[in-house]
Amino acid sequence: MLIRNNGPKNFARRNFIKSAGITALGLSVAPALISFKNPQEHERKSSERMFPEGFLWGTATAAYQVEGAVNEDNRGATIWDTFSHIPGKIKNNDNGDVACDMYHRYKSDVQLMKELNIKSFRFSIAWSRIFPNGTGTPNQKGLDFYKRLTDDLLANDIEPFATLYHWDLPQAIQDKFKGWESRDTAKAFGDYAGYVAKNLGERVKHYFTINELRTFVELGYGNGMFAPGLKLPARNLNQVRHHSLLAHGLAVQAIRANGNAGTRIGLAENLDVPVPIIDTPENIKASEIAMRESNAGYLTVIMEGKYTEKFLQNAGADAPIFTPEDLNIISSPLDFLGINIYMPSQYVQAANNADGYKTIPFAKSHPRSTSEWQVLGPEALYWGPKNVQKIWNAKEIYITENGISGADELTADKQVYDTDRISFMRNYLTQLQKATSEGVPVKGYFYWSMMDNFEWASGYDTRFGLYYVDYKTLERIPKESARYFKALAQSNKVR
């Protein structure tokens, strides 16, 4: 929880400062005091906050979290439909049956995006809308929905960035192949990816294969918190991980073979970002070592075409079964990398041990958002892309998710003064701008999320959106952060 002390002691301290007067410290409250006598200095300071020309500002959503309409137009059931209807799995027993009803409201939602001045929108395609059974005969009505959505985006000068898998595996695939426990699922995903790329054609020029392999593997098949709710032994879990990587590689190849010339491909991974506790050369090197190893089961093997020795040693007899051809497929060349960064995964410092670093634990009082898992650390948005470039020589990077949950109280006159979210964006984006000013090739930023939505196991109690959603009426109400984000996108600089 965010720590807010509004009690008497805090009130007294604030009033003491006021009554003592800032003039006692040699300061004045007059705004004229803060000025630049030298216009060139003012211009330099302003340019320091600028992002590169052509930087893409966007927002992001995912199909199951916003679309609703789960039983319409021949959509097939998904593992999240099944999981969310099991009592006790989701907070308040919420589900995505209606969600934000974007399936029916996409045109007005696109107008809300246009109002934000954004030039790109990241959304996911529901596999079971295209292939209700995961394989077999495609569903034209499902494809037509995404044609309508992308046509409307393009008509409003918003570039579609499509994610092909955001955790909503067709239930038929889970039932038939045991989901990601089988190589057959990876092959089915490649076939689906190729079909979508061929049939959406020139409408979509940027594809993300899979969103956050780490999350759906570890939480869905490791600890059972997410769909399909399994707790597999280590060997089976490692094989699930490998099959998801293989699916990514097969999808890259299928999109290349079936998409229009110039179609660009990446993935969106939940990057583990170790941050140097103090920016010394030794600690910076330690953060690079830690990043490569902490992402060894996911991004590292994709970028390097091999599992690290330490990863295989740690897995021992439970290591995944794979072939050299698997690794060639998994490491199929990408056009860009998408990285989802909400927080530092850990703080590290150099150490004279076998790892070359040691982890510094988060203090109990370290600030967090209203989501207990989200430790706040703006510098993650600097060191994440910085080390991705350094370790893997990435030529093009997108921040595909970054955001914060908040209390988001709606006032009587329908305002949401989410000052915490504005502070979050200002601080994190300052760090991202620092990275771009140093030549790190970050080409765009997608805020998570455009609107409040179904936040998986947290249901509808957790709000990340720029637009407040009244779940009784489904009205979208701009928060103060939406106005802030609009100013960011308009000026292309930290405000």
Automatic annotation (TrEMBL):
Tell me which UniProt keywords the record has, alphabetically: Carbohydrate metabolism, Cellulose degradation, Glycosidase, Hydrolase, Polysaccharide degradation
Q: Does the keyword Nucleus apply?
A: no
Which Gene Ontology MF annotations are present? beta-glucosidase activity
List the active site. Answer: 212, 401
**GO CC term (a single one):** cytosol
Instruction: List the InterPro entries hit by this protein, alphabetically.
Output: GH, GH_1_N_CS, Glyco_hydro_1, Glyco_hydro_1_beta-glucosidase
Q: Does the keyword RNA-binding apply?
A: no
Q: What is its EC number?
A: 3.2.1.21
* Entry's Gene Ontology BP terms: cellulose catabolic process
Kindly name one Pfam family recorded for this protein.
Glyco_hydro_1
In the UniProt record, the signal sequence range is none
Binding residues for substrate, per the UniProt record?
Answer: 65, 166, 211, 342, 448, 455-456
Instruction: Give the catalysed reaction(s), semicolon-separated.
Output: Hydrolysis of terminal, non-reducing beta-D-glucosyl residues with release of beta-D-glucose
Q: Which family does it belong to?
A: Belongs to the glycosyl hydrolase 1 family.
Recorded protein name is Beta-glucosidase
